[in-house]
Specification:
about 55 residues; mainly alpha; about 0% strand
Length: about 55
């Protein structure tokens, strides 16, 4: 995970937070759709890194 950019790490860690994604987005002053998109991109990046690591 340390190879991911900081914004992707932050998006992934926001899932572990007790607040909703909408609350996270509002706290960061971003559109909830943007937060959801960033989370999706971060998950895809993490998945790709894991697949490469397993080989």
């Amino acid at each position: 995970m340390t190879e991911l950019p900081p914004w992707q790490l932050e998006a992934l860690l926001s899932v572990d937070s007790p607040e909703s994604l909408v609350a996270y987005a509002k706290r960061r002053r971003m559109n909830p759709s943007t937060a959801a998109s960033r989370l999706r991109i971060a998950r895809e990046a993490l998945s790709l890194k894991q697949r490469r690591w397993r080989r």
